[in-house]
């Protein structure tokens, strides 16, 4: 395993880590399985790429990508709260809509960015002595840490707490004076803004944007969240956001290993998505399997319940 | 003053399952009144509370609170003046959030912004309030609420429903799902918290227990099939016994069941 491969995993883990923070907001905090991300990731990439090849400032391209992402979240949120569509259907509709919209924005299915000045190139101007190999991971790390801290702060504000409570006990928070339509929409916008940013940075980092690059974003995002949270078990938001970023790093590391060494086991690059699905299924079923395997515990539990019932009846 | 005028609510309207839960229901409650509401299943007690809180929307009629019509406002707007405690102790608190986060969600009910949800002053205030509950919660304000017992959670909900100085307090059989010991404690807490407000609060408490309905509060309303069939307060109420209530209950015209449900007379 070479250093460059490790650096590669680190960079990808951090870039996608921004997307994973977005998935964390919807999946874990709002309890809203949001499929919009399949569309908002390539949307962010497409918007940024379009701005860059049209000669615009890559910083503006990236900012526009963030706005476009939050707009995607807004559509899903409105479909779900105002038209009362289920959360899955709202996401599917927006995701499909975004595919067409993205083709319109990009003008063609694929935009190569080779030879163009990207945001990373712009930043390089300020650090002429630093090699790109170190600049990229440092910049991504800096960005992820800043975003994580801002998100932590936001979630502990008055509005942030109502968003957490919306996912935790919606009926209760309504009776405490919160318009849950509003909190859901804010959460979805924030989440997809992060996903759009992640898409924009990934396009500039890898040198292209493609309408199909969002395929599998939901599953990989979920895999990262689930891996992270099952490894670092922590109750506070501060540690949970760290956990999902660590999850993202581990996931990309596993994927790169699978890509690099998978051939010896007969894997092909196309099998990667299947592997991520397997990872998600395994990570999600571990607690259940543990429970089923533990016959002694089950036996004892049954007896306890019996005793309690008897105790109450007497 | 809480004025309920000609309030009507159907469920599953225009279907074969149509039921009339409230039928031209009228009630006027003065500031400071503590009204207990009794009635059998399907009498419309919970529907009444849900309509006042805005969880359900009425088909006809209106609700006025201190001169303002509130019956056309969404639930989250009415929550500025209305505190609620549900029968299910798990409904009133958010299990994955800490004790202090739950309290801070309930204390400010409008124009929430980007200020931190909790701070040192608030925390001190919460600890003071929690210590009055005598449950030791003041030392555990960073504990997840999901780890507390049903009785503790219901006590917290009581605190959350009164701490922000509401105009109306709605209690929907809030002691029914608890064990006898916790039930007693919550009832005592209810009395204390209402007393603290010294006649400044309108309280409506739904209960299935006739003895409790007469012991607590200063006015009792008996409901049956969406009607207010018996309303008693003051001196007259002090003389009334559970037996009188049962008699009153059996008097209601053309009932198929002349008998009162067991749980209503269980003490």
Structure description:
The complex is a heterodimer of chains A (314) and B (267). Chain A is an all-alpha fold. In chain A, 78% of the residues lie in helices and 2% in strands. A two-stranded antiparallel sheet of chain A has the order 1-2. In chain A, α1 crosses α11 (237-261) and α3 packs antiparallel against α9 (180-206). Chain B has 267 residues and is α/β, with parallel strands linked by helices. Chain B has a single domain (2-265), classed as Rossmann fold. Chain B has helices spanning 45-53, 75-78, 99-107, 120-131, 150-162, 180-196, 210-215, 234-239, 242-251, 262-265; strands at 2-11, 19-29, 34-38, 60-65, 68-69, 82-85, 168-172, 202-206, 219-224, 227-233. In chain B, the strands form 2 sheets. In chain B, strands 6-7-8-3-9-10 form a 6-stranded mixed sheet, sandwiched between helices. Chain B has a 4-stranded antiparallel sheet with strand order 2-1-4-5, covered by helices on one side. In chain B, α3 packs parallel to α5 (150-162) and α5 (150-162) runs parallel beside α6 (180-196). The longest helix of chain B has 17 residues, at 180-196. Chain B is globular and about 55 Å long.
